[in-house]
Amino acid sequence: MPLIWLLAAIAVLAAAGMVLGRRRALASAGGDHRVLHSLPSYYGTNVALFAAAPALLVMAAWIVVQPLYVESRVATLIPQAEYSDEGELSLIMSDVRRVADGLNQAIRSGAISAEEVRDMRADVTDVRDRLAQIGIAVGSEVEQTTLTAAQQYRTLDGRGNVAMAVFVLLLAVGGFVWTLMKTDKDYRARNSVENAILTILVAASTVAILTTFGIIMSMLFETVNFFRQYPASEFFFSTTWDPSFSGRGGSSELGIIPLLWGTLYISLIALLVAVPIGLFSAIYLSEYAGKKFRSIAKPLLEVLAGIPTIVYGLFALITVGPLLRDAIASPLGLGTSASSVMTAGLVMGVMLIPFVSSLSDDIINAVPQAMRDGSLGLGATQSETIKQVVVPAALPGIVGAILLAASRAIGETMIVVLGAGAAARLDLNPFEAMTTVTVKIVSQLTGDTDFSSPETLVAFALGLTLFVITLGLNVLALYIVRKYREQYE
Amino acid sequence: MTDATAPAPGARSRVGQGSLLRQDTRTIKRNAAENRFRIYGLTAICIGILMLVFLLTSILSNGLSSFRQTTIQVPVTLVADRLDPEGNRDPAEMARVTTFGYAPLLRDALVGTIADAGIETELDAGDIADIVSDESVAQLRNFVLANPDLLGQTMPVEVLASGRIDGFFKGRVTYATAELDQNISPEQLRLAEALKAEGLLATGFNFDFFTAPDASVTRPEAAGLGVAILGSLYMMLVVLALALPIGVAASIYLEEFAPQNRFTDLVEVNISNLAAVPSIVFGILGLAVFINFAGLPQSAPIVGGLVLTLMTLPTIIIATRAALKAVPPSIRDAALGVGASKMQTVFHHVLPLAMPGILTGTIIGLAQALGETAPLLLIGMVAFVREYPDAPWEGGLFDPATALPVQIYNFTQRSDPAFVERASGAIIVLLLFLFLMNLAAILLRRRFERRW
User: Which family does the UniProt entry place this protein in (chain A) (predicted)?
Assistant: First the structure.
């Protein structure tokens, strides 16, 4: 647990800085805190910050970089002949890591001494047996190259850890001493502390950018890998989705069209359910309903939005699916499957009702009262006013809301995983099971995955397509909504 | 409406003849249209609410029975020389006796109990033992290993009935279905009924459902939510520890300090887009960045927590900014006026006043994160986990665990209909947690909300 001790040392140093910085500042002012530039506590905080922050930052960076560096150094020890591609090398490396971890554990528990480990040779000692004796399981037989690499890994890793501890401690002490020396009654401690806090605030707000960047990069990187193994034209234009499970590449057909068709078909049905119901609910709630009715009905509808999608999924699987099959599909001879486009679409529609209704509600409420009064004053009935004045005025916003709902529907996962089925099919019959982009992302990325085969990598291409489609819809929707808002403000 | 302002000549003459007390056809038509429109609206709301009721009833009717469990009372004689051949009461030595050593004890005890109670049955001993869950044998073994001193005594043990017997007392299994089922026979059901009549078999509150770990596909009666609830709790801890400080810091910057420039615009656009990115995309991010790149372990609560943190951040930022905006400028002006710095104004005055709003937003964000399933599927939380993770300070955040919604998904993927009951029961538990969190948010808002 050297990391814990290192953190504890830094914490102690920071705490000491808190006290000493304050004391030194007060001493330089002769005990009269009115002479100080800042409040006394700022001097303490300043010293603590400069002792801890740089040290912690360096430590975090070191922890990220060290394994990468050590691995690249150790990987050169493994002869080229042992592996043919990156995948095999990473398998060997994970073996190396496991052996190194095992040896470390053995030393910690005192079963094997450090010297013994250093001089260990695979042809003399059976490392796997030795480790198994003290209850550490190593997968395969340990060969000499692996053992050498593991020993080297241990040495480099240990050296790196020591170097990190020394460097980080030096940095902490250095920061501590340096700021403490600077502390004096005229030193602008508050400004210094506030600048540091502002930096933290800015760093926090970049997390959003980093997330987007991470999403795009992670998917782009693997998608490029995918297109190296599988032609892009096939992916975008082939009408068959038929991944092979045994073979690696070649025999799989990975066309996105049937998946997109399923996605859009289900989303269309969902919108056909959600838009009329949501819109009429919003109109009734904002134009007709009394205060009391509104205060009951609106929260009840919004409960639908708070229910997790897995609940809707189970609802589709055990209630709606069998119901539709027994009541409609089977008697009409349209299908025998409980999971179908209709099942998923209906349930998703229910999920989207509150989404459409609360967005439309806000937009309808934003239409100025003067427009309604004008129409009513000319003798129009309330419904005529709504149909011919309020809705046209709110139309851009409503379209925006519908687009947002569509993007929700396209990206929805659990309802379709449980309600839509897994068969990729290009069909018009809504009582047939079809599948969507999100279902296939889940099925290709769960279970045994091999990140060098196109069958797994295709999930990243699907994810990127999904991301681009939903992003496009969102940007369009936000643009429309924003433009509309400017008209009345 | 153009018709209303410029009616046809014929219409005018009709208006002239009409009475104030009698509506003309056109007015009747327009009023009918008005009423129809109003009814459409009301119907839409009713459909929405009915759907909610339908959904909840369906889940409750399927799931409430999972809170009850059928158990059988059997006095088991713990034969010392069979369970502890060495005779030294050392649990390590005794652990060599597998469940195969315990099964006959339980079987004999059951047969003996039935004979003592005077119940006639044509079943042989093996079929009688089948009315008890396989899990019971393992439970008995664990119990003995934990209390080796009890060897040699006769202990009254409460064992789980098998899933089919349990289903029989909940109405899921009947004599007709048992006829077709190779896992249970009508004769066994009759035996169970006789046991119930003797008071040896009872259906009671299923406390284990909340604490026990998941069980294998063939033992639905033993499956519980213990690991899942713990895993979800750990993830919520991670989300709370990361999303709240980062979200609040980002909001303070954007709301109070950020100048109008490119960088600020970029952050704003990113936040509003992240709020609308499909959740499964965050799962792909977690898989690629946290597991494949950073090398964090699969199915660990820390990875789930990180992914959910990124998902929850936009919600928390949006709520926090609204709360900060709601603090009137006069507060800031007053603080600045008496010489506080901008930073002091924000941290000493604005932030404390905005705190109730921030906490409400955080709770709602956490509730959202608690119900999220799709991203967790991709980072390996679907794995079958029976071991409880360690405490968080012992590195439990890196131990494999599952989460409540993922456990529900797992239950739905198993063929035994008893798992539908378990899944629905788990959903009730999940909804209960969500309800409590939302209630807390509402109460917090009611209690501390200030109108300026």
Answer: Belongs to the binding-protein-dependent transport system permease family. CysTW subfamily.
Q: Which of A218, A267, A214, A240 is nearest to A404 (CA)?
A: A267
Contact at CB, A205 and B41, closer than 8 angstroms: no
CA–CA separation, A451 and A221 (whole Å): 12
* Cβ distance of A313 and B409 shorter than 8 Å: yes
Has domain B226-448 been given CATH number 3.20.20.70? Answer: no
Integer Cα distance of A78 and A99 in angstroms? 15
Point out the residue among A208, A287, A381 whose CB comes nearest to the CB of B271. A208
Least confident of A267-271, A469-473, B4-8, B264-268: B4-8
Residues B361, B316 contacting (CB under 8 angstroms): yes
Q: What is the pLDDT of residue A199?
A: 92
- Report the distance separating Cα B228 and Cα A365, nearest Å: 43
- Give the span between the Cα atoms of A488 and A465, in whole angstroms: 36
Q: Confirm if B134 and B218 have CB atoms less than 8 A apart.
A: yes
CATH 1.10.3720.10 applies to domain A241-488: yes
The amino acid occupying position A164 is: M
ipTM: 0.88
pLDDT digits (tens, 9 = 90+) for A273-326: 999 999 999 999 999 999 999 999 988 998 998 899 999 999 999 999 999 988
Residues of B in contact with A414 (CB under 8 A): 373-374, 409
- Quick check: B189 and B173 in contact, CB under 8 A? yes
- The CB density around residue A365, as the number of other CB atoms within 10 Å, is 13
For chain B, what are the domain ranges?
2-63, 67-217, 226-448
